[in-house]
Amino acid sequence: MIKIIIDIMSVWLIPAMIIIILTYGILKKVPVYETFTDGAKSGLKVAVDILPYLIAIIVAITMLRASGAIELAQKATGHILEYLKIPIDILPVMIVRSLSGSAALGMLSEIVSKWGPDSYAARLAAVMVGSSETTFYVLSVYFGAVGIKKFRHALITGLLADITGIIAAIIVCRWFFL
User: What is the rounded end-to-end Cα distance, in angstroms, of the chain?
Assistant: First the structure.
């Protein structure tokens, strides 16, 4: 019974929301179409404004992977990670998660394909992806979109939160899955 209700809600929820918003706008005498197109114009302007920041992040991630820096970091920290019982394949997720969520998800997908969805590595990577933020993405795109240039304290706070999320993910996964 609950599955049927969820199936019906998943099909009709978005169309119902659109109808409710349009009806509310018409009842309040809001020029709905003109308001929508004005919003679309401002959204396009924001997209153009943040494009350089997005390109910078994509280039940075591509350079990081192509340069071999991640593999070098894996070799350099392999013994420490092994001692801490952290799979070495998790290190790229730790490094890239602060830069890009989609890159981290791609690496998570690689880990799941390599080790399987029920493996400790896949579970740890999934919890890490869910417990940290794309700090550099947020700072460059969102702060750049509104013109904030001084974000030193936000950067430090975001990176500390990412490190805390990674440590918490390791502790929680060790507690639940090892």
Answer: 36
- Global pTM reads 0.69
For 120, the token pair is 């400790």
* Count of beta carbons in the 10 Å neighbourhood of residue 85: 11
Distance, in Å, from the CA atom of 42 to the CA atom of 45, rounded to the nearest integer, reads 5
- Which residues contact residue 100 at a Cβ distance below 8 angstroms, ignoring those fewer than 6 apart? 57, 58, 61, 134, 136, 137
Sole residue written with tokens 């490190």: 163
1-17 pLDDT per residue, tens: 788 888 888 889 999 99
What single string gives the DSSP state of each residue in 49-70? HHHHHHHHHHHHHHHHHHTTHH
